[in-house]
Design brief:
This is Cytochrome c-type biogenesis protein. The chain is mainly α and about 150 residues long. The chain has 2 domains: about 90 residues, Cytochrome C biogenesis protein (Helicase, Ruva Protein, domain 3); about 50 residues. About 65% of the residues lie in helices and about 0% in strands. The protein has 6 helices and no strands. Helix 2 crosses helix 3. The longest helix is centred in the C-terminal third of the chain and has 32 residues. It is elongated and about 95 Å long.
Length: about 150
């Protein structure tokens, strides 16, 4: 049993990522193909969640892979290719969206809400502790009467 677990662990560590790039998509020039893979790793499939277009089997991912390679063959730089695709599909296709402009609001909202919740929780706990400190104690007569009522 231990050997089985060990062999599964080794196979899991050695497994290379499976790419969805078809052989007919691969460029003849290895330098262009390497650039295409670098660009594709930074572009997200618009259908799949969390997969770049190199890993996705979706037809739109294939179209994007072909578009990247087509633009590279035409002589565009990496930035121009990414800019062209972002212009066409929006910043949603970027695996790492820019942290400027309107996106800055999205990046800052999470930490800001966390700080507000932390401050609100602290104020609540402080008020609750103060309310418990100022709680009124029953007089002896009131305590005796309460005991009588509870015994009945």
């Amino acid at each position: 049993m231990k050997r089985l677990i060990a062999s599964l662990a080794v196979m899991g560590c050695l497994a290379a990522p499976a790419y969805a790039v078809n052989p007919d998509e691969v460029l003849a020039d290895p330098m262009l193909e390497e650039r295409a893979r670098e660009i594709s790793a930074d572009l997200k499939c618009v259908v799949c969640r969390g997969e770049n277009i190199d890993e996705s089997n979706a037809s739109i991912a294939r179209d994007l892979r072909l578009l990247v390679r087509e633009r590279l063959v035409e002589g565009d730089s990496n930035d121009e290719v990414v800019g062209f695709i972002v212009e066409r599909y929006g910043e949603y296709v970027l695996m790492k969206p820019n942290s400027s402009g309107a996106n800055l609001i999205l990046w800052a909202t999470g930490p800001a809400l966390f700080l507000i919740a932390l401050l609100s929780g602290g104020l609540y706990l402080r008020r609750r502790a103060q309310a418990q400190d100022g709680a009124q104690v029953l007089t002896q007569d009131e305590q005796n009467r309460l005991n009588e009522l509870l015994d009945e």
